[in-house]
Input
Amino acid sequence: MNHYGLIGFPLTHSFSQRYFTDKFIREGITDCQYDLYELLDINELSAILQTPGLRGLNVTIPHKQTVFPFLHRLDTSAQRVGAVNVIKLEADGSRTGYNSDYYGFRQSLQNWFRELGLSPFEGKALVMGTGGASKAVIAALADLAIPYRLVSRQSSADTLTYTDLPAVINQYQLIINCSPVGTFPHENEAPALPYAQLTSQHLLYDLVYNPAETRFMQLGCERGAAVMNGYDMLVLQAEKAWEIWQR
Output
């Protein structure tokens, strides 16, 4: 049996296990199993790596960077993002870290632009949140030559604050929520945007996928903006992980 799994903490709402279990059933893959490995201490990973038949792991918070010492090399995707969410156990016993979030976001964004008739996209982006999720997003934006500014609650030379947004939001067509604000069970919350200033020219992309329509998206729709949640990104990053493991 080939084993795959997810490490992180907590893992109470795992997309990955449900997705891969369903994938194995749907595609008739009978020699693979996907498990959850809830790790608070990354040092517990040493024991998991000894699992017979282990072929690959997904990595989620809080271990996307703490996992680095357990790897022998980093793919360019992980180097660019500065975080790992996929580990491949190579045939020679070594371990390589990848970042499939980067691929998932980039491909989902390009697909969305094509659907909207906006390919190539020539606007600018606001990226809300400066945590781990934003790292993959800004790497993809840079590759697509889309200028961006980060938005944070804390002021710095490199970021805008939410209080800055009323003066500049009309200059940015694409607004991406990389924060967890609005995630179930806090689905009535939304990032502190000047929503009344949004128009039908704005595009709102929420990395949150539960609920399927976040308050951020609802408020955008009310102003005529196009909206998208993070589900396609999750599917695309999961399929990219599977592709990596099968090489």
Residues 9 and 39 are 6 Å apart (CA to CA). Residues 102-233 form a domain with the Rossmann fold fold (CATH 3.40.50.720). The chain has a mean pLDDT of 95. DSSP finds eight helices and twelve strands in the chain.
